[in-house]
Amino acid sequence: MSEELGIRAATAADAKAVDALIRAAFAGTDFGHQGEAELVRMIEADGDALVSLVAERCGDIVGHVLFSRMDVEADGDAVAAAGLAPVSVAPDRQGQGVGTALIRAGLDVLREQGVAMSFVLGHDDYYPRFGYSPRLATRFVSHFSGPHFMAMMLDSAAEWPQGGRADYAPAFGRLG
Ligand SMILES: CC(C)(COP(=O)(O)OP(=O)(O)OC[C@H]1O[C@@H](n2cnc3c(N)ncnc32)[C@H](O)[C@@H]1OP(=O)(O)O)[C@@H](O)C(=O)NCCC(=O)NCCS
User: Fold this and answer.
1) Does any ligand 1 atom lie closer than 6 A to the CB of residue 87?
2) Mean pLDDT (whole number) for 148-165
3) Distances in Å between the alpha carbon of 72 and those of 39, 115, 151?
4) Complete domains list, the chain, with CATH
5) By C-alpha distance, which of 85, 84, 63, 49 is closest to 18?
6) Ligand 1 atom 10: the closest Cα is on which residue?
7) What average pLDDT does the segment 54-79 reach?
8) Is 174 left (phi over 0), alpha (psi -120 to 50) or beta?
9) Is the pLDDT of residue 32 over 80?
10) How far, CA to CA in Å, does 141 sit from each of 67, 76, 138, 168?
């Protein structure tokens, strides 16, 4: 049986399956549980989703990643930026590279869109492998500032801004 992983843009027809996947992925975690599924719905309703991808194996949706529009200012200028959240992999498919493939594919789409920066709040042993840096994030004032807040320049050769402000999409502020 072929187990090849396919990654494609999520469509409106995937909404139910994606919602169930997010709930299942976060059920056993300390994170927002149902809050993450609700967050995705709010971001999409607000028109703030920049990249939404699903991973499929044998016709089943086994992973999802969302990047949403952020309001970011760096060294006094507005910059196009995307927040990574949430990323969800079906519990029985975790640790098989699905999350890695989704995040890498999403970052590539953001680059094609001309997005300059991405931010994430998460495990500091997972996201640095994609280029996210806690050190770069400390240069930005944000509601989410702290040890798990990370930032990356999507062009790895780009100079780091000296400082700025990073605000997530309004839906994050409406989370219960
Ligand atoms: C975190 C998550 C997206 C990673 O996706 P994945 O497909 O399981 O991970 P990959 O196979 O691509 O990468 C494996 C690496 O992720 C790490 N990892 C796997 N599951 C993890 C988990 N539940 N929490 C933290 N790290 C995890 C492993 O330690 C492994 O690291 P290594 O390469 O150093 O051994 C996925 O496990 C998941 O959906 N978890 C539940 C929801 C969640 O916590 N989302 C992220 C919120 S910040």
Assistant:
1) yes
2) 97
3) 20, 11, 11
4) 5-173 (3.40.630.30)
5) 63
6) 97
7) 97
8) alpha
9) no
10) 20, 13, 7, 11
Q: Which amino acid is at 141?
A: V
Which residue's alpha carbon is nearest to atom 31 within ligand 1? Answer: 126
Nearest Cα neighbor of 19 from 36, 43, 44, 42 is 36
With a 6 A CB cut-off, is 160 part of the ligand 1 pocket? no
Judged against a pLDDT cut of 90, whether residue 97 lies above it is answered with yes
Residue of minimum CA distance from atom 24 in ligand 1: 123
The pTM of the full predicted model, rounded to 2 decimals, is 0.94
The residue to mutate among 89, 121, 130, having the most atoms of ligand 1 within 8 angstroms of its beta carbon, is: 89
Can you spell out the DSSP letters for 105-126? HHHHHHHHTT--EEEEES-TTT
Determine if ligand 1 sits within 6 Å of the CB of residue 100.
yes
